[in-house]
Amino acid sequence: MAGVRAHATTLSSGTLADRYRGPSLEGVIATCAQLAAFVESSHSCVEGKVLTLHDVGSDPNPEAVHGRSFPFVLKDQTLTLTVPREKTTFSAYQPSAFAASDLLIPPTLIGTGDLPPGSQINLLSDSDPRTVRTVLNGVGAISPTTEVEPVGIVVDALSQLTVIRSLLAAGMVLGLVISVAAFVVSVADRAMERRAQVAALALLGARAATLRVVQCAQVVLPLALGLGAAVVTGWLAESSYLITGGGAVHWDWSGLPLLLACCLGVLVAAAVASLPLVRRHVDPEHIRRD
Question: What is the pTM of this model?
């Protein structure tokens, strides 16, 4: 399935009535590689053997005693497993579907067609909204009536996040257009006021290339400082919002290259637009007015 990085199956020992009357264990049908993909770290995993799972972040199940046997009721048979002495330790994410697991069961012991109706298939994917939506669409295409329980992400918030991002993008584009337009108008107005000074400098022998460089620098430098301050301030505000909202402390570099490319494009457009304001022809009317 597109977007799925790993999968594993969890099931409980005994029948539903047995779980209410007596102790039961939670088993994970997975290989060592699949277990490592679902948890933060794992150690001492042996491929192809039934192992006792121990989460270092939680207390062990007091019922998972070495030598005790538990029946796992499958579709057409009952598989009795004994809690082994060998164990593998792991550190589960919080939250995690494997936090309360007790046994690691190799997939070779239980076929896909033998899984009972009460078993759960766990899928692992990236947390970005596009990937999550792709996985959910894939599950819905295969089994539309299957109940999906997301772990670590709120599916209902994906649509809200899409709307918020769309509004934010529209606001940023609108603000960029208005800001650039206002800056261009102010620069053009200032250039019109300085026509007499430019004409006087040209009459005194100043080179046209020098005048164009000065005019370009007067346009680009203030704009570059303003855009740089806006980008840094927005970047710090985003990181502060994510950290105060419970996110991990890190610098978000994902959208920065595109934003810097847009700023560079604005600077180039402003520089090119400022060049025609400096002409080689000296208008005597400008000298007379000055």
Answer: 0.55
